[in-house]
Amino acid sequence: MTQAKPRAKKLPLKERYALLTRDLDWEPSYVEREKLFPYTSYEGIKIHDWDGWQDPFRLTVDAYYKYQAEKDKRLYAVLDSFAQSQGHLGLADASYLNAIKLFIQGVTPLEYAAHRHFAYLARYLEGPAPRFAALCQSVDELRHCQTQIHTISNYNKYYGGFHSWSKMHDRVWYLSVPKSLFDDAMTAGPFEFLISISFSFEYLLTNLLFVPFMSGASFNGDMPTMSFGFSAQSDESRHMTLGLEAIKFLLEQDEGNVPIIQAWIDKWFWRAYRMSALVAGMMDYMLPKPVMSWKEAFELYFEDQMLGGLFPDLEYYGITPPRHVEDAIAEKDHLSHQVYKILHNFSFAAAFTTQTPSEEHSAWLSEQYPGSYDELYKPVWDKHARTEAAGGRIFFQGLPQLCQVCQVPMAFTEPDDPTAISFRTSEFTGETFHTCSNGCKWIFDREPEKFVQAWLPVHQIYQGNCGGPSVPEVLDWYGIQDGDNGEYKGSPDQRSWAEWHSGAPKQES
Amino acid sequence: MQYELRYQVIEAKRQSYQNVIDRFGDQPATRYQEATLDVEPRENFHYRPTWAQDRELYDPRYSALRLTDPYSYADPRGFYYTPYVTNRAALHDEFGKTLTYLEDRELLVTLPEAWRSVLGSVVIPLRHYESGCQLVSVTGARFAHGTSLAQCCTFAAFDRIGNAQMLSRVGIAVAGGVGDTLTTAKQEWLDGAHLQPLRRLVEEIMVVDDWAEGLLAIDHVDSLLFPAMYAGLDEKALLGGAGAYSLVAQYLTTWFADQRRWIDALVSAWRGDPEHGPSNTAHLDRIAATWGPRAEEAVGALTAVVAGRLDGVAA
Question: Which reactions fall under this protein's catalytic activity (chain B) (predicted)?
């Protein structure tokens, strides 16, 4: 009788993946567990069984390298060919690049921050499975930061405003809005960071914060950014599943976690929503070919998908829709207009340019915002247009007051009265602090000792910490170069664009 | 002959980002430079970390080892994300092909008994060592000062999981496709007397507060362990009927040579720093004196076992 060769057995996929990841971990016996993981108790979150974490995706290291290397090969081929063919000349208009300036100054540094702080989770979360998921995301976020730098590198050679993105993120007034948000998340404990970034940022609001830039790219001939967007999509979907698994895991572990997480959802919804105001202004005013209005995006991606889809699911765990969500809904007709007014008034101190919407663009806005635009915002733009027709340009003289929490200039209106500026104040250690909304005031009052630490750009200018007392000194300290700022019409970008499209391009072999 | 393609030339207003121009002048920059230099935030942090109230989110004080300018250090491999994953995709692809070859011919299942024992009780348990090294390296990914350093630590952390997975896959292959060897190897890691000096050492390094000291303590172990367990067993394996082991071990040797490049360059940068050089050198010497002997002891315990089991096997 011949003996059959023993057939190689095969491990079930789930078991194999567990062996290759979480089984690598062991219970330390030579050092105290609390010394190894010192930060998982002070936020009050209780985890009874880290093994209850369900891997949201199963990616081994070899497969990760393979997919990512292939994706990058394709992405860099697009970047190279776009650069070689002067693809930037095919954009809808040079003014489109203002959106991408905002992106590299405001968003790319956040990718980097996420990279660094997911490494913190990869070190300090107690469960090996979530640690590995966090490690993957940390590496992905580095990818996003670096591929964005390379994607935009070619535009930087020909246009203003891109050149000092990293320094600007540390210094310029409107960029303290995204920077302070991530600083807030990173200085919190590991679980709050997970809820703030993985859940609120990557899941709840990603379609309002990140995707509009990629869609804008696609509509406006920006092939590199669009290719980056597609290339990041599979990473982002892993990050979204991680966010969802994280919140479910924390909620399932202990009932006592529910109110803590509810408060974080309340805080981080409003925090991220307030930051999205900059995106709202970009979507409605900076894209020569708009994708959809902020209002429509908000209704589709937030009201329908999140309030209508996600929150009914979370109700099972005792989670309710975020506090102050009704204020966000109430101002959806106004948000983008109010923010772009600020940017337009203060763009002399920004590293992008602004312009009064053209008649055609204004007609589009009026169609998109039948309830607010013609009555409240068009008259303002008409006034600007008249001034500009006479050779003028209105900029706001002086510096705005900033919200102590979101750091956006205090120009938002009351939820029930779009003609009254919303001011809230709180007292803390004998001083008065100003916030722009019910949401920001609630956030301040919950953690005043944190928010009084805010590095408020306007206060810092007045305190003499920003290069000097005059506007040119501050701009110089910001790293803003002549022509990066102010009005688009007549700007170096606009003049170069006109010259490059004048029909007599220089030709050389 | 070549044909003459005419194309539009537009003069660039600048060749690179301003921070790169400030360092090297207005000339074309590499992708490594643009993706690395000055990326980490420097100033105007809004709030103090609740987990380290006396420090900033990015702060040189997370280590005693300092560089006056972190960007005076450059990864000699020039790795930013894309070349890193491209390089490692090739390494793991080769490893996978080799492993499949060995599995198809059952060359790992049929290793001589002494070699099976060395793999099961010494080599495969090192997947837990790799996992501990990941925890140490990723601390640098968060706390190293400067993108140039932090990204090296990030890649190293991911590498260590890759190494752990390579060793685990060898363990699965040795058992003929199941997890039994991994289970017994884990038991060895937890209880085997010969592995306890190493496990104790790694656990103690995992709680070292200074990320760079942790990284270097591990490197002291690596510097003994990798030559001893992988390249060092090559000849014995080839002569002792365990060529299959040599085939898989070569990938860990390749990895270690790569790891050496960035760490050696970093140590040189620390020693040679114009401002912190002397203090760095004192710290480096202290680190070597603290962890070096411990590493020798831990790796010595393993090499003794290996020598004992393979005694008489090799010619």
Answer: propane + NADH + O2 + H(+) = propan-2-ol + NAD(+) + H2O
From the list A10, A117, A128, the residue facing B177 with the nearest CB is A10
Distance between CA atoms of B235 and B313, rounded to whole angstroms? 12
CB contact under 8 A, A31 and B178: no
Alpha-carbon torsion (A123, A128, A130, A133), positive or negative:
positive
Taking the Cβ of residue A109 and every Cβ of chain B, the question of whether any pair is shorter than 8 Å is answered with yes
Instruction: For domain B72-309, give the fold.
Output: Ribonucleotide Reductase, subunit A (1.10.620)
Taking contacts as CB-CB distances below 8 angstroms, the residues of chain B near A186 are 49, 57
- For residue B315, pLDDT over 80 is answered with no
Tokens of A425: 């104040």
Residues 6+ apart with CB under 8 A from A376: A334, A337, A418, A419
Q: Which domains does chain A have, with CATH numbers?
A: 56-355+397-497 (1.10.620.20)
Reading the block at residue A345, the tokens are 């008034």
Domain range annotation of chain B: 72-309
pLDDT < 50 positions in chain A: 1-2, 505, 507-509
Measured CA to CA in angstroms, residue B56 lies from A170, A186, A407, B172 at distances of 14, 11, 20, 45
B105 touches chain A (CB under 8 A): no
pLDDT reported for residue A508: 44
Q: How many other C-beta atoms are found inside a 10 Å radius of the C-beta of residue A330? A: 15
Instruction: Tell me what pLDDT residue A5 has.
Output: 53
Helices (H), ranges, A8-127 = 13-20, 33-36, 61-84, 97-106, 108-124
Tokens found for residue A17:
């993946």
Q: What is the pLDDT of residues B239-290, one digit of tens each?
A: 999 999 999 999 999 999 999 999 999 999 999 999 999 999 999 999 999 9
Quick: pLDDT tens for B15-36.
Answer: 999 999 999 999 999 999 999 9
Residue B29: closest CA among chain A residues belongs to which residue?
Answer: A153
Judge contact between A173 and A406, C-beta under 8 A.
no
